């Protein structure tokens, strides 16, 4: 009898903090598809596909208002094209890989639909730091010959063999973000749009425009 009471007491002590955690904090992992383009001045831009993978933390109040943040590795990209871009003979820049570490700060409200379904619209902001990636510059060299050069996206590339020097993208990016979450039990299907406000590319003063669809799994 004493052993049974002891087991019940231990089970209660273990379950209590876990239940409290589930009602407030929640933690999960997320992965998905990214489609990204650049809003540029004067030139044209076409989108490129990418991906993201990350971890999330969420805190929900008793009134269903929630706050969410996390850390994601996200690959963005786009192709910018035009005539004599940056007043040099560059005709296009393919940002094949713009790899960022991105931190969102979101606030939302959970609408309970019953049968363990809910939806949560969110709005907030994000900050991203470029870490690495490759780009391809196309144009004419000093001998009027066409070339394509592979360069680092976030590092300055010196002029070689008559090729115009390439000015890198800005590592820092920030902007607004909007999302809609459809939740069922431990799973969330999320559609998200990032509206970049910072200038990240020097040719055309490009700003990021990112649409993503991802699936998240939550512990509680």
What is the structure about, briefly put?
The chain is mainly beta.
Describe this structure in words.
By secondary structure, the protein is mainly β. It is built from 1 helix and 11 strands. The chain has one helix at residues 2-23, and strands spanning 25-39, 44-60, 65-81, 90-109, 111-114, 117-132, 134-140, 146-152, 172-184, 187-196, 207-218. An 8-stranded antiparallel beta barrel has the order 1-2-3-4-6-9-10-11. A hairpin with a 5-residue loop joins β7 and β8 (146-152). The longest helix is centred in the N-terminal third of the chain and has 22 residues, at 2-23. The relative contact order is 0.20.
- Mean of residue pLDDT values: 87
Strand content: over 45%
* Order of strands in the sheet with most strands: 1-2-3-4-6-9-10-11
Low-pLDDT windows of residues:
5-22
| Overall morphology | elongated
How would you classify the helix and strand content by structural class? Answer: mainly beta
Oligomer: single chain
Biggest β-sheet description: 8 strands, antiparallel, barrel
How many DSSP H or I helices? 1
Alpha-carbon distance between the termini?
A: 33 Å
Share of helix, binned: 10-25%
Reading the helices and strands in chain order gives HEEEEEEEEEEE
Number of strands: 11
Rg, please?
Answer: 23 Å
Features:
220 residues; mainly beta; eight-stranded antiparallel β-barrel; elongated
List the helices and strands and how they pair.
Blueprint: H1 2-23, E1 25-39, E2 44-60, E3 65-81, E4 90-109, E5 111-114, E6 117-132, E7 134-140, E8 146-152, E9 172-184, E10 187-196, E11 207-218
Antiparallel strand pairs: 1-2, 1-11, 2-3, 3-4, 4-6, 4-7, 5-6, 6-9, 7-8, 9-10, 10-11
